[in-house]
Write a structure and sequence with these properties.
Blueprint (H helix, E strand, L loop, with lengths): L1 E5 L3 H11 L6 E4 L11 E2 L7 H10 L4 E4 L2 H5 L2 H7 L4 E2 L3 H8 L1 H10 L7 E4 L2 H10 L4 E5 L8 E4 L2 H12 L11 E5 L4 E9 L4 E3 L4 E2 L2 E3 L3 E4 L4 E4 L6 H21 L6 E10 L2 E8 L6 H5 L7 H9 L14 E8 L16 H6 L3 E4 L2 E4 L2 E4 L3 E9 L2 H12 L15 H5 L4
Parallel strand pairs: 1-2, 1-4, 2-3, 4-5
Antiparallel strand pairs: 6-9, 7-8, 7-9, 10-11, 10-16, 12-15, 13-14, 15-18, 16-17, 18-22, 19-22, 20-21
Helix pairs in contact: 7-8
Bound molecules: adenosine monophosphate and glycine.
Glycine binds next to loops.
Length: 425
């Protein structure tokens, strides 16, 4: 089959890399365009917001399956438009994508189907939000209801901070229409885990658990980022907890969507907080996690193209995934200043040496300039390595990381440390 992968980050590189291993796959195109320096796919500069152009491209290249990486194209209905044109898509429809693009939709679904999550209230009026904030305990979480590129969640430590966040969203409209409604919710404590499942709306195949590291600095300090590293499996999610998350969260979510007459096809990502009262949903994403994907996909032994196609065509019944028992760790190498302002165009050295150490290197924000690989984003590279246990994987990944350098590169030195401190998975 011929496959078009939409998106240009480390997640999409990992998807292309995994698809390339399938004997069923002939050509892979990636919409990263000139931004990307990846080898596994042919890069095409495709304006993905112009669905007509994507359809024309698919027809000209005889594309059998389109795999949508990021949430933004899904939120504007790329899957619906491609399917109307007779093109098979891995990724949910506009209506189903509201699980991520509207936190209100997601929260109301959870409330209706008794799916455990933080207690919440919805506001579109600042004065009413302010009154409510006075009544609740701090810390409290203030969220823009729409897509805000990961910046729309404020953990307010004080009443003033919460009021300020609500004011910014509802009055100053810093997130535009995406913040014209807000959710004020209970602050949950515990350890987070990412649970991803493939579903065709009817059947569910769980993927291996993983854990992201959202804060920029060691010890979970500093501002939130898109993710500074991940590991799989997540040691906190033992068999019992996995079953609990499946029964209390994943199954009721997919069934609930079906009851609402919304067909969900693709990968459903459930961000879970493991609290003292059990697992609770923090958020849903309608796509693969980044960087979680970079540690999950290398563990899949089964044919990945086959799995994605079966998901897209409603054919998951009876499918199984074989897993590699090794543990994987991913360290994100970021540009100086990220997640704030950063410079681009820094030459990267040591990529081959890192691979010689046995690591996989996925490109998240790089491009080719006169035959050299240079930085072109905040999250630049994802270095991934495995081990027979997590400690070995950590040693292997950091040995490879040390081979790579670019001006003002930074990364966390404690990725997977929490997993390691829990002992064997
Ligand atoms: P979200 O995009 O909703 O997952 O939020 C991003 C991050 O904010 C999560 O991964 C958590 O680290 C944190 N967060 C979101 N909601 C809560 C909550 N109710 N309690 C504690 N932390 C939260
Ligand atoms: N790693 C978090 C996310 O993909 O949303």
């Amino acid at each position: 089959m011929n496959i078009l992968v939409i998106g240009s980050g480390g997640r999409e590189h990992a998807i292309c890399w995994k698809l390339k291993q399938s004997r069923k796959v002939k050509n892979i195109y990636c919409s990263g365009g000139v931004q990307s320096a990846i080898r596994e796919a042919e890069n095409v500069a495709l304006e993905v917001c112009d669905h007509r152009k994507v359809i024309d491209f698919c027809r000209s290249k005889k594309i059998d399956l389109v795999v949508v990486g990021p949430e933004a194209p899904l939120a504007v209905g790329i899957a619906d438009d491609l399917e109307k044109a007779g093109i098979c898509v891995f990724g949910p429809s506009y209506a189903a994508s509201r699980m991520e693009s509207s936190k209100i939709f997601a929260k109301e679904l959870m409330a209706k189907y008794n799916i455990p999550t933080a207690r919440f209230r919805i506001f579109d009026d600042f004065e009413k939000a302010k009154e409510y904030i006075k009544e609740v305990q701090v810390p409290v979480v203030v969220k823009a209801y729409g897509l805000a590129a990961g910046k729309g969640v404020i953990i307010a430590e004080t009443v003033e901070e919460a009021e300020h966040a609500a004011h910014e969203m509802l009055v100053e409209k810093v997130f535009g229409a995406e913040g014209e409604k807000i959710i004020i919710e209970e602050y949950l404590t515990g350890e987070e885990a990412s649970i991803l499942v493939l579903t065709d709306g009817e059947n569910i195949i769980p993927l291996a658990s993983s854990q992201d590291h959202k804060r920029v600095s060691d010890g979970d300090k500093g501002p939130n980022t898109g993710g500074m590293g991940a590991y799989s499996p997540a040691h906190i999610v033992d068999e019992k907890l996995f079953a609990e998350i499946t029964d209390m969260i994943v199954v009721p979510t997919v069934k609930g969507l079906k009851k609402e007459k919304i067909l969900y096809k693709g990968v459903l990502y459930v961000g879970v907080m493991v609290t003292e009262d059990g697992p609770k949903v923090l958020e849903y994403n309608v796509r693969f996690g980044d960087p979680e994907t970079q540690v999950i996909l290398p563990r899949i032994r089964s044919d990945f193209a086959d799995l994605l196609m079966a998901t897209a065509t409603g054919d998951l019944a009876g499918k199984k995934i074989e897993w590699d028992e090794k543990e994987y760790v991913c360290v994100v190498l970021a540009s100086g200043g990220y997640p704030g302002e950063y410079e681009k165009g820094k030459e990267i050295t040591g990529l081959m040496d890192a691979e010689t150490e046995g690591a996989l290197v996925f490109h998240a924000g790089t491009k080719l300039r006169e035959g050299k690989v240079v930085t072109s984003g905040g999250r630049v590279l994802n270095v991934v390595a495995s081990g027979k246990n997590i400690k070995e994987a950590i040693d292997n990944v950091y040995r490879a990381v040390k081979k790579i350098s670019f001006d003002r590169m930074h990364y966390r030195r404690d990725i997977a440390a929490r997993g390691a401190s829990r002992g064997q998975a």
